[in-house]
Amino acid sequence: MLETKHEQSLTQRVLINLGCGQTRPVGWINTDSSLNSLLQSFPLIQRVLRNNSNAIVYASNNARYMNLNNPWKFASESVDVVYASHVFEHLSLSSACLLGRKRFVFLSLEV
Questions:
Q1: Do 106 and 82 contact (CB within 8 A), yes or no?
Q2: How far is C-alpha 29 from the geometric centre of its chain's CA atoms?
Q3: Which among 110, 108, 111 is positioned nearest to 82, based on CA atoms?
Q4: Mean pLDDT along residues 4-26
């Protein structure tokens, strides 16, 4: 299958979606600090929870757990886009300032 020009440009760029929740676009590194995102890396545990509780089941599992207060696992100037919709209102003032500083360390300087 041929990729569109837009899809080709997405595959060549590093796109990070912080605090993705249920919005997990293909081609992005989708991160969230929810317990559900953490449990996605353990399919057996997630299956047990899904069968025995009212756990939220997401349509896709392309998200990884990432606590924004911890060091990010990206090289300096290696990220093209940092997207954070509805994230800052969940952070303390000091965490929000830290996030603001970190994004400049990881963003690529190339246009």
A1: yes
A2: 5
A3: 108
A4: 76
Residue pair 105/71 in contact (Cβ under 8 Å)? The answer is: no
Place of tokens 């997207």: 83
Given a contact cutoff of 8 angstroms between Cβ atoms, the answer to whether 67 and 33 are in contact is yes
Kindly tell me if the per-residue pLDDT of 90 is higher than 90. Answer: no
Average pLDDT over the chain, rounded to an integer: 79
Distance from C-alpha of 111 to C-alpha of 31, rounded to nearest angstrom: 24
Residue 12 CA to residue 6 CA, distance in Å, equals: 10
φ, ψ of residue 47 in degrees (nearest 5): -65, -40
pLDDT-derived band at 8 (thresholds 50, 70, 90) equals: very low
Q: What is the pTM of this model?
A: 0.72
Q: What is the dihedral of CA 94, 98, 101, 102, to 10 degrees?
A: -170
